[in-house]
Amino acid sequence: MSFQKLDDLGHRLEALGHALAILGADEATHMAPGGGEARAEAMSTLAGMAHRQATAPEIADWIEAAGQEDLNADQKTAVAEFRRHYINLTCLPSDFVERQTRTRMRCEQLWRETRPKGDWAGFLPALEGVVELAREEAARRSDVLGLGPYDALMEQFDPGNRTAEIAPVFENLKAFLVDFVPNALEIQKKKRAKNPLRPLSGNYPVERQRELGLTMMAAVGFDLTRGSLSVSHHPFCGGVPTDVRITTRYRTDEFLSSLMGILHETGHALYEQNLPHEWAHWPLGRARGMAMHESQSLFVEKQIGRNPAFWEWALPVVEQHLGEKWSKDEILAHVHHVERGLIRVDADEVTYPLHVILRFELEQDLIAGRLEARDLPEAWDEKMKAYLGLSTIDTPQDGPMQDVHWPSAAFGYFPSYTLGAMIAAQQWSAIEKDIPDVNEQFARGQFEAVNAWRHEKIWSQASRLSTPDLIEQATGEPLNAAHFTRHLEQRYGA
Amino acid sequence: MSFQKLDDLGHRLEALGHALAILGADEATHMAPGGGEARAEAMSTLAGMAHRQATAPEIADWIEAAGQEDLNADQKTAVAEFRRHYINLTCLPSDFVERQTRTRMRCEQLWRETRPKGDWAGFLPALEGVVELAREEAARRSDVLGLGPYDALMEQFDPGNRTAEIAPVFENLKAFLVDFVPNALEIQKKKRAKNPLRPLSGNYPVERQRELGLTMMAAVGFDLTRGSLSVSHHPFCGGVPTDVRITTRYRTDEFLSSLMGILHETGHALYEQNLPHEWAHWPLGRARGMAMHESQSLFVEKQIGRNPAFWEWALPVVEQHLGEKWSKDEILAHVHHVERGLIRVDADEVTYPLHVILRFELEQDLIAGRLEARDLPEAWDEKMKAYLGLSTIDTPQDGPMQDVHWPSAAFGYFPSYTLGAMIAAQQWSAIEKDIPDVNEQFARGQFEAVNAWRHEKIWSQASRLSTPDLIEQATGEPLNAAHFTRHLEQRYGA
């Protein structure tokens, strides 16, 4: 039976994926520094095994034959998702993948060397090579999938996302934010004039912050019997659904960046921990995509963790762990701080989407051939000035060299971040209707109802639906930026 | 070229072995408790992949053809060791392996249930099944290897070890110890009458013990950039040569058991860290076998860590970390404590070999069919009374149920422990000749010369020689129990 062959393949790929996930998390948290070379070799060999097994030619026949077999509804959906994965994995010839991997890895290495010095001229030739191959990749994927070239790239990260639907949404959001950011900053300035920011005490021992983080993780639903919290240089959520590894890093002079980071990664972890166990070895059993994943992390960080009602409950918990008493207004002044900046990863929720929209626009132009890599510094600077009033023309390390995504050839990924923020806000609107006292629940430290809602609508769905269909089924309407702009207006407006 | 195929296979098996080693260490140290089921499934799937790849029929042809190719000396030795591994892996039919695996796993589970209650009757039928299959395994291996049945089992753990050579050595050692143990106890009693044992203070915080352990590990040669120390329920040395994971467990009422355990595992780790890097992906590049591995751990624990000269240097280090001042005699009274006991893993270096010899004798009788599993409690009790003057007839949990080795079908493994102790003593004798001031060096905390000796004679040899040949090449003579008995007489005699 062909379905059985796919099912067996799923178990083998799950085992290799399990090893790669744990080895990856271990590398960032517990590996001895001298273990890197052998680890990289082992992981690339295992990844090669997984890729060869997942792209074997006979799988096409199994998928075809399984379509004719007497399967239940779940199995049918599983076959469809096997097919989607298989096409995405096999639509590029292997000699192209090898060429692209070499080019990408050389460009990443060069990026690490040239970025600290802002050496755009040294970086550019490698980036040009990556862009050229990204155009070829987009064309090849486009041919196989029957999608526009940029859509074919996005399809890897968020199945069903289309430029035609996203571009106008982003256009409206941009128009809103270009006005809203200065307003929000003006309002913040007036508030601060009346109530100056109370500085953090600067004495937050790591062990106490860790205990606070664990308490908050558990409170918002993280299952500590199926996951853990460690330290790494770059925070991440990794591991496997039965053993989710989240990490943070601590500063002893403040506690909010680590705490908010922990809540963010906890959002990713909740999605992973609550995926349907019985589908774990099928592609169908995975989280839907990057935008939906980001919506879950942002939901916990922004809709829960930066919600004033949450702090009714959280302030005594903070006091208990850190020995410091704050009023709600005092802490919210920190939690809702807005500031124009050059660096995406440091941005607050008001300015962040402008960083993403800038990249979304430039990426489309790059892939379409309307923009060349060599013209990026000027194009970036022009948009940066228009959207955030800042210039990067003399500091390319804060401009087109700031992220690893382009050297890594991950074109089509950036939109997921802001789509995630919009989906999170849209979920919040739906939840406010379905659970009218949700804020009162948060103020009491109760997150069960909101988690039950998300479990039913999002987590248990895994990859059953495309990203747009999942949004619509979960929230009752297609992606609508109005929920996000309303959220920003309520939190940061007059 | 066939050698290249073996070389490539070696890289694939190394990658899978790397994953299994790190996943195994991670499971015991950092895995979330709920992650066990998925981890077990992933590891057994990966182990199956590794086994299938390592036993593929075409490998026999590659080995045959590689033998005809123009290879350098290392490559020729590598092919011979590939052949040895391949024969050991393939000499059992896979349906037999499956039957044995099921029987063994059921017996291990049953052992875990019945041992705490001492329920021999409940355990016996499962053990009988394991013994029956162990006899069949021995006969099958014997046919392929042309060795006696018990030798064919030992061959898996220590290539070249033969009962004909070991049995008389053990016989002499037993005769020596049966007299020596009561003498050593009498001497200890007299010493204690004059100088009563100074009790440990019972206040040893874990973090300080850990720092002490790390300091000692580094001092005796552990490379902390290529390994680490964690906590686990059962101490072990795992991981990979570039990232060796050793573990311990701490009691706050005393520090010596953890410290000696750390030194023991450090001995294993030194062997792994110093294997030839360029052979890492060949069977040839692995440590020689269990007896040689145990000799390296026992060397660090007993020849270094329980050596009076070592404590000249170690006492101020202990004082610095634990804030407690000891005289050398006071600490050595603890470090050299001798006591007759029922449990092998709790035994000191004087009584330990008798536990092993007892099992070695019973195992040979079991495999030869001269003894049945049902008669084990009486046979065990008889030897226990004769060798250590203790009875286990009413407590089978302290007798034939005490170790996991038999339920796991690991017959032929026990001798390695005492062979390791003898090899460690024999190495020490050779080192005393080659480095006459070795004790003075230890007293100054200098371990470089002794490590250089072991690097040249043992570690860098990896699996080039059989166990007996490696012993002879390293120490200048075949296995000779006189070094071990002399060691015991010097340390525990009059």
Automatic annotation (TrEMBL), chains A, B:
One of its GO terms (molecular function) is carboxypeptidase activity. Signal peptide: none annotated. The keyword Hydrolase applies. Its EC number is 3.4.17.19. It catalyses: Release of a C-terminal amino acid with broad specificity, except for -Pro. Belongs to the peptidase M32 family. Broad specificity carboxypetidase that releases amino acids sequentially from the C-terminus, including neutral, aromatic, polar and basic residues. This is Metal-dependent carboxypeptidase. It comes from Nitratireductor rhodophyticola.
